[in-house]
Specification:
Chain A is an alpha+beta fold. Chain A contains 14 helices and 23 strands. Chain A is globular.
């Protein structure tokens, strides 16, 4: 009997079962915080390593700013503090004494960084300034779920300053494209991209760009965001530079980030009834070899062949499951829950033919291979699995993106099917809020394409084509 | 004129000048916390990458535990809380409300981790358990100095559990040896290793092993520690396993860590009057090429050759300093402050002979090379620089390790020369404390060798050979 509740029966329970049974994370006794276990952390480490390289290729330098932010810094930007103050953890005592000024644990680092930016930036020659940090942040959350929403999470936050709006626009879009490419190429995640409505944008931003992924329960996850901050923070933190013409001007800024939420996104986009399905590129174990034998003699021969195969495939992350006391069937189920992309089964009968069986996690298909062809066949097979997971997720996203011209149809689709719903919107926040209040659906992105039709809510002329969905 | 105060004039000021002029870190407005700038962070990233690999080779798995620890957890182990509570930053409010229980920001993670260990460990089959995390920690410090002592710092902390004392002993010594090898091979740091006195050991440990490096001002830095925690925490956190014989037993534990302090250690051990000197393996820039020219025509030819050299040396981290508006001499001084191991100077006269000049940062020596031999000569040269920095530091350490048989000599050496002073100690904490109170010198390590002579302080028979020094 499977240890995992069927997705169709209770998706939330399925999710928690997968996190537990795949040994990815544990609850901690600190409210809303999780313990990331080795298997979950290895996925995050792979994400970090690959994304870190892409960030560096864009000539962004890594730095580290303090965890603690003076409350007065947060208060300097009105919209920003309104957005984040209710979520802050506050340090009032240090070294046994009450502090003269409270410190908040960073919910994001704009304010602590930009105070320093004002000291680093003087001239047009100091621009663009492009930095990034890998760090933990804390946002007090009421309802949490491992990886998807936790009080403390790990992330990277890029912060840049430019001489003009065009520079910040370009950077905000570069970061968005970097995330989209990374999601597609490394995580096999199709994402919808676009701009957020003012109601949904980052607190303090001019505009927010976003990558949105569709989970298999029809709900949507904000997987990464990139903000053009305009000159809002430059004004609050007095970040000015002397331009070529000698004039003193405010900088234009961006910030952009992705977090451990990406690990949760992998689970809800690729997971199936049996558990996790990991794209090979991000999988901590890409290939598991399960030896099958009855006698000691068989065992020696099979393990010898298994080690030979492991050696042939050493450019990959391969593990032989040598455990005794559990059946091959038990092992199969466990590696399926953990989402290992390819499983090699090898027993005496395979040995006799110099073959082995490969079971693909993405399709469940089992195919026999000559042992000698694995060296050339495996790279192709893993590429195929990577691509197939992407195509499956893309098809699911396309099949679950529907249009609704009127509110009745909209509610019906939302209720019965979920997914993205394309509609017209007049641009009025009242309509947006009313739809959210009545249906819990929010505008995930505003399309670049223009709409010609009516607003879903008020029926007035609407030129905005928007994607609605219920979100995590 | 140099931007760096001479070491001999004011070592502390020299240190701060180097940190500032090499662009490694900035002060932040949060008390005792620093901003790690790109050049400083790149050094830390290189340390992380190399050490992370060595940790994984020892079959230790990376994880992540919460930043915040319930105060009651800290209170469960008496010695531990006495050691750390005075240094804690305390969160009393979260999400706009007063918390029912205060949370401390981790000063170290024993208590939050071991509460979970009691759930992970049930049987002898769960042992040894070996995990590590890369994280930030906060300890409220009165007197801080960038990298060497900061309120927040970055580190790795390894934590293991074993079935018996022998297992924990072996692991504590393995971690110590890993640090010693890493210091020697990657950072070119000679370190003195040994066990701490009870007064100086980690709060809650059975014993503490340490690596101690000697700075060029004669003061000593604790660069890394490894603790055998005995069964102290197993008792407080109820971590028990059922042994093969069916009996319920307490686990034996270790923890071990190094931090961003290693970056400061590199500075004070290898630095010279001109600034930083980085061992090639850890240097963010291993080779800098400074083109020298007067006319545009010369510039084109020289830059072409510089790029050819860069390409020949692409297995290394190479940068061409193409800045205009500053003289080659200005550039030389700047790269010397930043400690780049090898500088290649190339001008029209070198071009004519297909040569270039290499200036070694470790010796200051300048030698001409054929451009065509760089590909084979540079790896050897960088190895030589790496080894020479180690040998220089080792010689300094040996030259500054002296013996004292009586307290008068001891004080004289301490006052006039500093460094390590080998003496006899009876083992009584009163003598140790009195020496510390009167001279500020502490026992850095107790040697494995036995002493035959008298105690420095009380004159009683002393069988402990100890290394005293003033420490950072």
């Amino acid at each position: 009997m499977s240890k995992v509740t069927p997705q169709s029966q209770d998706f939330s329970k399925w999710y928690l079962d997968v996190v537990k049974e795949a040994d990815m994370a544990d609850y901690s006794k600190v409210k809303g915080c999780m313990v990331i276990k080795p298997y979950g952390y290895a996925i995050w480490e792979n994400i970090q390593q690959e994304l870190n390289q892409r960030i560096k290729e864009a000539d962004v330098k890594n730095v580290y700013f303090p965890l603690l932010i003076p409350e007065s810094f947060l208060n300097r930007e009105k919209e920003h503090v309104e957005g984040f103050a209710p979520e802050c953890a506050v340090v009032t005592h240090g070294g046994g004494k009450k502090l003269t000024e409270n410190l908040v644990i960073r919910p994001t680092s704009e304010t602590i960084m930009y105070d320093t930016f004002s000291e680093w930036i003087h001239s047009y020659r100091d621009l663009p300034l492009k930095i990034n940090q890998w760090a933990n942040v804390v946002r007090w959350e009421m309802r949490t779920r491992p990886f998807l929403r936790t009080t403390e999470f790990l992330w990277q936050e890029g912060h840049t300053a430019h001489s003009d709006k065009a520079g910040a626009d370009t950077e905000a879009h570069r970061a968005l494209q970097m995330y989209k490419d990374f999601d597609r190429e490394f995580l096999a995640l199709p994402v919808l991209t676009g701009v957020k409505s003012d109601k949904e944008k980052f607190a303090g931003a001019l505009y927010t760009l976003t990558t949105e992924a569709l989970a298999r329960d029809g709900k949507v996850i904000q997987a990464g965001t990139s903000h053009n901050l305009g000159t809002t923070f430059a004004k609050s933190f007095n970040i000015k530079y002397q331009d070529v013409d000698g004039e003193l001007k405010e900088v234009w800024q961006t910030s952009w980030g992705v977090s451990t939420r990406l690990v949760g996104t992998l689970i809800v986009v690729h997971g199936d009834e049996k558990g996790l399905r990991l794209p090979p590129k991000v999988a901590p174990i890409q290939i598991v070899i399960v030896p099958i034998y009855k006698t000691d003699e068989e065992r020696d021969a099979v393990l010898k062949a298994a080690n030979q195969i492991k050696n042939d495939l050493k450019r990959f992350r391969v593990q032989i499951d040598e455990r005794t006391g559990v059946t091959p069937g038990f092992k199969f189920a466990e590696w399926e829950i953990k989402g290992v992309p390819a499983r090699i089964e090898i027993g005496p009968r395979d040995l006799a033919k110099s073959e082995c069986v490969i079971a693909r996690r993405d399709t469940g298909e089992k195919v026999s291979y000559e042992q000698s062809e694995l060296f050339t066949a495996m790279p192709k097979l893993l590429d195929e699995i990577q691509e197939n997971l992407y195509q499956q997720a893309l098809k699911f996203q396309q099949d679950n993106t529907r249009s609704a011209d009127n509110y009745e149809d909209f509610k019906k689709i939302l209720e019965e099917k979920g997914g993205f719903i394309i509609s017209g919107w007049c641009g009025n926040e009242k309509c947006e809020s009313k739809i959210k209040d009545e249906t819990k659906a929010t505008i995930r992105v505003i399309s670049e394409e223009k709409h010609s039709g009516k607003c879903l809510m008020c029926g007035e002329k609407a030129d905005k084509k928007v994607y609605f969905a219920k979100a995590y």
